[in-house]
Amino acid sequence: MRELPRVNINEDFYLWFNFEEKEEYYATPLYLYNVSRERIKPEDETRLCLNLEKDISKTKSNKKREIIRQPATIYIHYVESIGALLINFLNADFTTYETSYNTFFYAYGYELIKEYVPYQYTKSDSFITDIEFKSIIKDIYDTSSDRLIEWQDNFKKCVDFVYNLNGNEDLKEKNKLSKFIAYTIKDSDFYTYSQGIEIITDNYIDIHNKYHYETLDKLINEIDNKNQELELHNVYTSKNLTNICFTILDQIVRHENLQIKTCLNCGRYFIPTYRQNEIYCDLANVDKSPTCKEKGAGEQYRKNLENNKVQALYRRIYQQKFMTAYRNKESKTIQKEFEQWKKEARDKINKVKKGKLNEDEVYNWLVENK
Length: 370
Hints:
The protein has 370 residues and is of the alpha+beta class. It has two domains: 13-284, no CATH class; 295-368. It is 44% helix and 12% strand. The chain contains ten helices and eleven strands. The strands form three sheets. It has a seven-stranded mixed beta sheet with strand order 3-4-6-2-1-9-8. Strand 1 (13-18) and strand 2 form a beta hairpin. Helix 3 (130-162) crosses helix 4 and helix 8 runs antiparallel to helix 9 (332-353). It is elongated, with a radius of gyration of 28 Å. The mean pLDDT is 84.
């Protein structure tokens, strides 16, 4: 039985999940280039996140600067929100080697596609210059770009089908897991992505040898406090990008409270963080601009203010006209004018809500017809 590596991971890619916390963890032997490693929590040195610091296309090559290889381990690993690797793959821009790096490979490394590269690109030592690194990833991209785009397209088709993102109303109400399994069986290319995955079941041997002298009370407290060395996981490992993406998608479709959607603003795929009815993603942008959720919240706030302004004016004019009609019950002209105004005003308010009229038009109409 294959054992989990307990030292630096220099080969393959390892992935495991924590659905309770909606997190996924991974270990990969990648080089850090324009990337920072940061702790999720200042006091926790075992969980790190990777952030792209600078667009690779805007970085001037330097013959003297060296990039260090930073393999993760099972106990000191990288952490992302659940499904992040798959989402980043679906949204990655594989049109150039720079955009491929900026949107995907900076965080996961090129180990996942090394079988398609006609030579061993990693050096035996831990350092290479950034010129060498750029040359390496360009060669890898040139060799693999067609495959990357094909794989991405195949996964998009499956995700669109399973999560009803392709307008297929006929099977909209079908169970998403059933749809995923049926799609995998049916598609001649997609089913092959399920192959080449190893599942390593963790065991208590190492934990027992290290901790069996501790008291039960201390062990329970350590476990409750999420000591990484006392956690057991099924770890998925593979050399292939498609296998890892398939594993993540397979796990996500098995959890009813996880949905994949497309952002109403940018069109990228995302998994809602808090509510299933979220319409804007909170995905980071390479240019460090505000996320769609931040933009959407600001835009919605602005619209709400404008809608409130229109609604407030409508209610004020309505009350005035209502009191005039109430005091002049005998006047058929006033009653008719009130009913006509009320009908037109409500129609315009409804059109604002549906986006058929803008707020300024309705506000000006109310002012002119008060």
